């Protein structure tokens, strides 16, 4: 992955803004608690004073048990602070710093190495995935509902959800791929987003492409139509990211180039043991008719396949909302 200076600076500015926002929020919360609980402020001031006394004793090498005594007092005060805070209805971590990424504390780096969140930000910027991050906030396993399916449709959906949850749980231990196929609006993209969201939270790099966009990027780079836009070889990111999501396979233009590139992508990721999720509205017969035997062989042998069926959940939900 390579970024221009302006792109790199843009990411750095976003981290600076995160830390400023976190600092501002902590200051606002501290002021709120101090006004509501004057005793809490007094204990904070006492802690500061005792900490200075302990530091002086250590520097002057006049310990004589003083630092141990101060340590015990500080422990007692901190315990009383927590009890005071929770007793007033605040959460125990209300005055802890709030970070978007707890791994790097919103610095973007861990031991001078780019944090996974920084690498994901690079992918988002290089492949214009900012929109998917907004979607992922609202599409999580916690948001799954079983109220829109019945019978076999419900059974299939539950099986797919279970498979998706296991995929995430076993991601660091087992190499797996998933193919979600079925009719429009039955939850394929939603489940893909749930898995992507969970894995990004766990520190994995994820690239999302609609099938149309994926093959457009590959075509542009291969034939150098917009060579100046590419600061790096996109194949390396596509082949090496922890998870690649190809959404709406079958909506792209069908030709020999696309089929060959699809096989190359699936095959290369398989050889590297890099997981892929594919969603499509095509059924298995339509996939067989559209793609080469080599592609179908890869899908059948290397993918856990889940069929989703039933009515369009989005349309059904809108109808329900309009009746209220």
SS element count, helices? 13
Structural class: alpha/beta
Largest sheet: 5 strands, parallel
Mean pLDDT, rounded to whole units? 86
* Morphology call: elongated
Annotation, overall tally of beta strands: 7
Strand arrangement in the largest pleated sheet: 4-5-6-3-7
Radius of gyration: 26 Å
The amount of beta strand, in percent, is 5-15%
Order of helices and strands: HHHEEHHHEHEHHEHEHHEH
What is the terminal separation in angstroms?
49 Å
Low-confidence stretches: none
Proportion of residues in helical segments: 55-70%
Could you please describe the fold and organization of this structure?
The structure is a single chain. The chain has 324 residues and is of the alpha/beta class. Helix content is 60%, strand content 10%. It contains 13 helices and 7 strands. It has helices at residues 5-36, 38-59, 66-87, 116-126, 130-138, 151-169, 188-201, 211-223, 234-240, 256-271, 284-290, 293-302, 313-323, and strands spanning 109-110, 113-114, 178-182, 206-210, 243-249, 275-280, 304-308. The chain has a 5-stranded parallel beta sheet with strand order 4-5-6-3-7, with helices on both faces. Strand 1 and strand 2 (113-114) form a beta hairpin. The two termini are 49 Å apart. The relative contact order is 0.10. The mean pLDDT is 86.
């Amino acid at each position: 992955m390579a970024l221009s200076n302006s792109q790199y600076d843009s990411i750095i500015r976003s981290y600076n803004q995160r830390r400023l926002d976190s600092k501002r929020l902590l200051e606002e919360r501290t002021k709120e608690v101090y006004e509501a609980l004057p005793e809490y402020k007094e204990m904070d001031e006492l802690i500061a004073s005792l900490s200075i006394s302990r530091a002086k004793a250590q520097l002057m090498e006049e310990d004589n048990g003083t630092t141990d005594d101060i340590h015990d007092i500080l422990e007692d005060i901190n315990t009383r602070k927590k009890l005071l805070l929770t007793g007033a209805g605040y959460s125990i971590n209300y005055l802890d710093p709030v970070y978007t990424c707890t791994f790097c504390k919103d610095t973007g780096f861990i031991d001078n190495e780019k944090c996974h969140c920084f690498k994901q930000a690079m992918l988002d910027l290089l492949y214009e995935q900012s929109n998917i991050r907004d979607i992922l906030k609202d599409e999580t396993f916690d948001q799954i509902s079983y109220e829109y399916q019945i019978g076999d449709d419900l059974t299939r959906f539950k099986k797919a959800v279970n498979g998706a949850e296991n995929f995430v749980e076993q991601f660091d231990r087992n190499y797996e791929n998933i193919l979600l196929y079925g009719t429009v609006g039955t939850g394929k993209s939603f489940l893909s987003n749930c898995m992507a969201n969970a894995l990004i939270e766990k520190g994995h790099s994820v690239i999302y492409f609609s099938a149309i966009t994926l093959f457009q990027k590959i075509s542009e780079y291969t034939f150098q139509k917009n060579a100046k836009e590419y600061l790096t070889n996109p194949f390396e990111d596509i082949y090496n990211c922890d998870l690649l999501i190809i959404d709406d396979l079958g909506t792209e233009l069908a030709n020999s180039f696309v089929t060959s590139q699809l096989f190359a992508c699936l095959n290369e990721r398989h050889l590297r043991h890099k997981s892929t999720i594919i969603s499509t509205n095509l059924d298995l017969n339509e996939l067989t008719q559209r793609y080469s035997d080599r592609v179908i062989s890869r899908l059948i042998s290397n993918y856990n396949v889940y069929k989703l069926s039933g009515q369009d959940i989005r349309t059904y939900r809108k109808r329900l909302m309009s009746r209220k």
